[in-house]
Write a structure and sequence with these properties.
alpha/beta; 9 strands; Kdo2-lipid IVA acyltransferase activity
């Protein structure tokens, strides 16, 4: 059900959308505890089916070489279960109002962010695929602070429109990635809050910074906006809290921004610090990270001495470069 160029046919897109809406309605009508248990079981089933398990295990070996194979296997299974639980939570977002979001979240660093907003230069909230990044934006909006989230379009435009509808109903304005160079500066000049998930492989357009001890190509946009426009930057995560119920701690820690006059060096420094802060959060609950993406797909170019010895650069198109 795809055309000659590999695009999904209209019939397939409608089928995908219909299935997604049916699942949304089913999960949304369940009691929250039952929906959470369903998501956990669904994640466990996907783990047993082996979908992307090789990618997950490769990433865990790179990030946690000190763990045994048994420990990494246990962590991988838990990460699938977490993904299923958060998928269920996301489907239920369409039924929540701001009061329900506030009820399910506690904040840390809120006063510091309000103080930063008093500077009048806007605020950048930089997060990663950890915990529940959609809840992070919803928690800010639900507390009366307008937020714009930089997003990538989904392949299915009908599903994408539904996601956008849910975000807007929760008070989250969306900025497409391709529009970010124009719209982010406007938002910051209006003293707005801009949120971005910035931890996926950025290919050759990124900067290489350490992530779990290995250089990772990382998007430079958050640091570029912060350095150029003087906006305060916060490392932000929404970590699911242990125990019964579905609750999250949404935390934000201000990250110092160095401005030496060397733009590229300042971008490198800030990007590295943001990656380090995210890594620290992940180590607190590693099963809550999205290990399914090829985070270290792009490799740094070899040093001149290595090239002279004939060591080839490892890089190429990434068919798994998901949003």
């Amino acid at each position: 059900m795809a055309d000659n160029k590999g695009r999904r046919s209209p019939a397939r897109r409608r089928l995908e959308y219909g299935l997604a809406r049916a699942l949304e309605r089913a999960v949304s009508t369940l009691p929250e505890g039952m929906a959470d248990a369903f998501g956990r079981r669904l994640g466990g089933t996907i783990y047993r089916l082996g979908l992307r398990r090789g990618v997950v295990m490769d990433n865990l070996r790179l990030a946690f070489p000190e763990l045994s194979d048994r420990e990494r296997t246990r962590l991988a299974r838990a990460s699938y279960q977490h993904l299923g639980r958060e998928a269920a939570a996301m489907l239920r977002l369409s039924r929540l109002d701001p009061a329900a979001v506030v009820e399910r979240t506690v904040t840390r660093g809120w006063d510091e962010m309000e103080e930063a907003l008093s500077e009048g230069k806007g605020v950048m909230l930089v997060t990663g695929h950890y915990g529940n990044w959609e809840i992070a934006a919803a928690a800010v909006a639900a507390r009366g602070i307008p937020i714009s989230a930089i997003v990538r379009r989904q392949g299915n435009r009908m599903v994408d429109a539904r996601l956008d509808e849910t975000r807007k109903r929760l008070g989250i304005e969306t900025i497409l990635q391709k529009e970010a160079p124009l719209r982010v500066p406007r938002a910051l000049r209006k003293n707005g809050v801009v949120g971005i998930v910035a931890d996926q492989d950025a290919r050759r357009s990124g900067v290489f910074v350490p992530f779990f001890g290995t250089p990772a190509s990382t998007h430079r946009g958050p640091a570029l906006f912060a350095v150029r426009f003087g906006a305060p930057v916060f490392a932000c995560v929404a970590r699911r809290l242990p125990g019964p119920g579905v609750r999250y701690e949404v935390s934000g820690t201000r990250v110092p921004v160095t401005r030496t006059g060397d733009l590229e060096a300042d971008i490198q420094t800030l990007t590295a610090e943001l990656a380090l802060r995210l890594e620290g959060s992940i180590r607190e609950a590693p099963e809550q990270y999205f290990w399914f993406h090829r985070r270290w797909k792009t490799r740094p170019k070899p040093e001149p001495a290595a090239r002279e010895q004939g060591i080839a650069e490892v890089d190429g198109p990434d068919p798994d470069h998901e949003s």
